[in-house]
Specification:
Largest sheet: 8 strands, mixed
Strand content: 5-15%
Helix content: 40-55%
Radius of gyration: 24 Å
Number of strands: 12
Number of helices: 23
Length: about 500
Amino acid sequence: MTSERSSSSSRPAQGARRPGGQQARPGARHAAPAGSNPVAQRIEQVRSALGEILQWSGPADQVLSRWFRDHPKLGGRDRGTVAEAVYDVLRHLRRYRNVAEGGRGAATRRLAILGLASTLGREGILPVLDADEADWLRRVSAIDQAALPREIRLSIPDWLSEALAIEPDSDSLLAALNRAAPLDIRVNPMKAERETILAELRAGVASDMAEPTPYSPFGIRLQGRPALSRWGRFEDGSIEVQDEGSQLLALLVAPRRGEMVIDFCAGAGGKTLLLGALMRSTGRLYALDVSHTRLARFKPRLARSGLSNVVPVVIANENDARVKRLARKAHRVLVDAPCSGTGTLRRNPDLKWRQSPESVSDLCALQRSILASAARCVAPGGRLVYATCSILRVENEGQVEAFLAAHPEFELLPAPELLADRAGALSLPGPYLKLRPDVHGTDGFFAAVFQRRHGPAVAQVAAAEAELPEPDAQAAGLDDEIEAPDGEPARGEAAGSAENLGEGDR
């Protein structure tokens, strides 16, 4: 194994904590000082941002947002250029590092040059490079990528390459994950029709960039990054940012009016809002999460959604006493479990460098615990949906098989049949909702549907429960006041800001 392979695969942070890379040689000159040319300035800005991000101190989007706050003089177009180049580097980091070894000066500067050459075009930056840098860029641009080892060519760590080797046409999958994702939005069916929103987008902020999603009846796909955050339809809750795969998840849950439904890992509430709309704001919908911050970000979205049946609740963990009070009460339970996020690499390419086999193993243990706890909440005959935005079988099919072995009271329902009349021309082999960007144009996504079986004694209990009035929040021991466990501070701002619009909201 080469030194490059060992430093940028399963142990990405090794070496990344030296953001400055090697020192520039004395006498090395740049054709244009950073302050004299906009492109030269961009190189230094991208280099600076990468220097912070490649320390892997946190998610790239958060670190980049902080970097932008520290550089308030950058305009919107400048921020867009920097962000695009930074994310290009993160997508192709292993390949770029491999060719950067043959250059001179600081490593992060060479990475910045490669990122901007990809986004602005090589000819656009050559004039601001010194002779050595220009010669190096021409040489590395001429490398036949097809001749590179798979892990370097597709820029993935060894462990991820090995895990995905069993997937059909895995090279195509990984290549798709290295391409930037379009922006998917979802129409709020409580407030608008998709055709109406499409017409307004095409006539205004999105011109010819808007198309209906092929599978979700609520979705619209936008190419580019139109200015939506200040659009009236966004501000009044008529639309939300949400990947098409997450929209299909709500169709699998298929909540009905008047039911009790639990979104067990609600996060910032994108799925919760669609579930509530499908319930026509009737019944009771609990949005549970361990993070006060995430649920705080959900509050303004909930306020503009027009829903009145949602009860956000912060829980300490999956075994919180308030969860236990919901045992066998819920008609539908959704578990969009914490996962590796490997299906979202189009949007979050840093995840492949920040995750490891060890972190995935820890996540699998958490997923099993959450799924078991959520299952206790399902009423006889009720539905349990388990989902991840992972493309790893250990987090998907492996968890389903383990759950069914440990819970014979549940049976697996065929997801394709449940979506047959609701998701357009979606074709799915096997019993799961399994999406991939190269096939479906969505993030990588997985979902399985379970149903709690009825038994002779269980049927009597279910009939008796059906006669009881619908439990309200207080009867279940819950309320809509968000109280952070263990003194977690209330932080966060409204999701869907201009800064966050590029991210798929689950």
